[in-house]
Amino acid sequence: MTRVQLQFHADPAELPALAEGWMRDHGLHGVVQRISPDFLVRPVAVDDVRDAARGARWICLRREPIAVAGDSPAAFLAHNPGCLVVDIGPRTDEGLRESAVSADTDDRATLKLWRGLVNALRAGTHAGATVVNPATGARGPWPRSRHTPGAHDLAAAGVPMLAAAGWNRYEFDDLAG
C-alpha cells in the first residue's frame, strides 16, 4: 500500500468546505464519523457535508460507494479500502490540535487523485513553525509544519496551536516577529 498524508493546523470550519469541494469537483462519496462517545458513521450528500460535520472527527471520501460497516474506525476502513480520511483536529479551551488528510491505496487512479488533492492543499498552506515543549521550554525549528489561513488567523488571535497528541505547541514562523 502507498500512503498519502499531510498533517497541518486548520480552523475546523475550513475542512468540511474543503471536503465539499472535493466531493463536488471529483464526484466522490462521503461519510462523516464521530469517534466519541460512540462510534457513528453517517453517509452525507455533497450539499450536507458542512452541517453533518458539526461534531464529527472524520470526513471520509471515496471514489466508490461507501459501505457503512464496522464498529470502529479500523473496521470501517477495512470495509472501505482507499478512503481519504480528513481528520479534523478539534478546537478546545486548550487550543487547536493538528488535523490530517491521509489515505492508503494500491489503486493507481485513486493514488493519483489523492496525491493531487493533498498537493493542492499543501500549496494553499503556509510552512514553518517552532515547536515548543511547555514543560521544559525546549524549542526547535519544524520547517515541515503547515497551516491554513484559518489556523493562521486563530494563532494570531492567541489560540494555542497544539500537536495532534501530547503537549507540544507550535509557533508559526510567519507570525514571529
Mind explaining what this structure looks like?
This protein has helices at 14-26, 49-52, 73-79, 108-123, 149-156, and strands spanning 2-8, 29-34, 40-44, 58-62, 84-87, 91-92, 95-97, 99-105, 126-132, 139-147, 161-162, 169-172. The protein is of the alpha+beta class and 177 residues long. It has 2 domains: 2-123, no CATH class; 126-175, no CATH class. Strands 1-8-5-4-2-3 form a 6-stranded antiparallel beta sheet, covered by helices on one side. A 6-stranded mixed beta sheet has the order 6-7-11-12-9-10. The longest helix has 16 residues, at 108-123. It is globular and about 50 Å long. The model has no long low-confidence stretch (mean pLDDT 95).
Total number of helical segments? 5
Structural class: alpha+beta
Number of domains: 2
In what range is the share of β-strand residues?
A: 25-35%
Concise structural overview:
With 177 residues, the protein is an alpha+beta fold. It contains five helices and twelve strands.
What are the key terms here?
6-stranded mixed β-sheet; alpha+beta; 27% helix; 6-stranded antiparallel β-sheet; single chain; 177 residues
Write the layout of secondary structure elements.
Layout: E1 2-8, H1 14-26, E2 29-34, E3 40-44, H2 49-52, E4 58-62, H3 73-79, E5 84-87, E6 91-92, E7 95-97, E8 99-105, H4 108-123, E9 126-132, E10 139-147, H5 149-156, E11 161-162, E12 169-172
Parallel strand pairs: 7-11
Antiparallel strand pairs: 1-8, 2-3, 2-4, 4-5, 5-8, 6-7, 9-10, 9-12, 11-12
